[in-house]
Amino acid sequence: MKPSRALLACLVSSFLASALPPAPALADETCNSPYMANLIKGQEDFLHVWTLGVPGMGDGNDKLVTVDVNPKSKKYGKVIDVLPVPGRGEAHHMGFTDDRRHLWAGRLDDSKIFVFDVGTDPARPKLVKTISDLVGKSGYVGPHTFYPIPGRMLVGTLSNARDHGGATGLVVYNNKGEYVASYPIPTAMPGAKADGYGYDVAINPGKNAMLTSSFTGHKNYMADLGKLIADPAAMKQFGNTMVLWDFKAMRPTKVFDTPGAPLEIRWSLNEGDNWAITATALTSRLWLIRQDKAGQWQARDVAPIGDPAKTPLPVDISIAADGKSLWVNTFMDGKTRLFDLRDPAAPKQVYEKVTGKQVNMISQSWDGKRVYVTSSLLANWDKKGADNEQFLKLFSWDGKELREQWKIDFTKEALGRAHHMKFTARPAGSAPVDSTTIADRSGPPR
């Protein structure tokens, strides 16, 4: 006899209530879950890039690309491993399991999830499992955010199998890749404009607070961007809300009106802070979610990003470990901006630089001295012609200037479209990679 969905939800809720630690731990990438172990406390050794395949480019498959990023290595700034997965399915985001030994990577089109072993040999990841039951088990489409909780992976999705619109939910798997439960994002809440849309997930354990944000459904994110913008009806199908959840109970408690597709969510990691920040893609604003003096959570529009009238399209953000600054990448103008967050209710832009003709993801090291940038947003949203740059870049940051250290041209290397990034480190006592060829498992070494 199979347990009911309600029973599964009860079981996972009971597990979360009893197993979660009372306060977050430090993490090396400031967007990571506070429940991760085996943290990198110094220099990262490898950067893994989840890469979209391009028809006619190399093998054309989506792939996990590994780059050596330790300055002491002979292969510093070079691709050392290429691991393709079958086909193309809009490779997008990744996330570690709580023990950091496995990396889950999702595809937004076919909803497959690939599980890589990065703990045994992070220089040469291994594909150990493909999860193909997300749609069948949950009814949701487009696995986007992979957020580890103890013994589980919390997956935020973007769409649904019924109409491929924006109404969606959260899905829980165990670390073996077995489905546990799913939770719909509310489409109705008393006194709120709930829309049921989803995107990112972020948790503050000390406050038992989980936030989800919102984007758009499969019909929109798989459409050509030019045609999408020209379709007034389609442009109305973007999320305008964030949801606050009682995390231990996995129960939504409040919906915030945050117009314009709020994307990445970043909690301040500074001890004692009680706020998170996000950026709205279509309205180009920073929004602050914070408790007021009465302890009630509120959302406020606190600053513009560039000139909102020109729709710079903020995409990824990266908060400093001390919560005092925030990097923001804007796709349309190719700029990386820095905001002073010392007063989170009044962020101030203090720096900007054009870092590419199009830029998307941004990841900074825990000490803030290294900033990595990739270029691809979505296969059908990336720019055309000469503006369709596909790269990974490393910049140093000395507090005054971003200085490019190296660049890998993913088009020239026939790798595809560079999207999400994650750091790993060598196991203690292991030697740097000194091979003279790239380990490319789609064919002979290049």
From TrEMBL:
Coiled-coil annotated residue ranges, if any: none
Gene3D superfamilies registered for this protein in UniProt: YVTN repeat-like/Quinoprotein amine dehydrogenase
EC numbers: 1.8.3.4
Class of enzymatic activity (EC top level): oxidoreductase
Reactions catalysed according to its record: methanethiol + O2 + H2O = hydrogen sulfide + formaldehyde + H2O2 + H(+)
Superkingdom classification of source: Bacteria
Ranges that cross the membrane: none
Signal peptide: 1-27
Stretches for region Disordered: 423-446
InterPro entries: Se-bd, WD40/YVTN_repeat-like_dom_sf
Alphabetized Pfam families for the sequence: SBP56 (PF05694)
Keyword list, A-Z: Signal
Pathway it works in: Organosulfur degradation
Protein family membership: Belongs to the selenium-binding protein family.
PANTHER family: METHANETHIOL OXIDASE (PTHR23300)
Protein's recorded name: Methanethiol oxidase
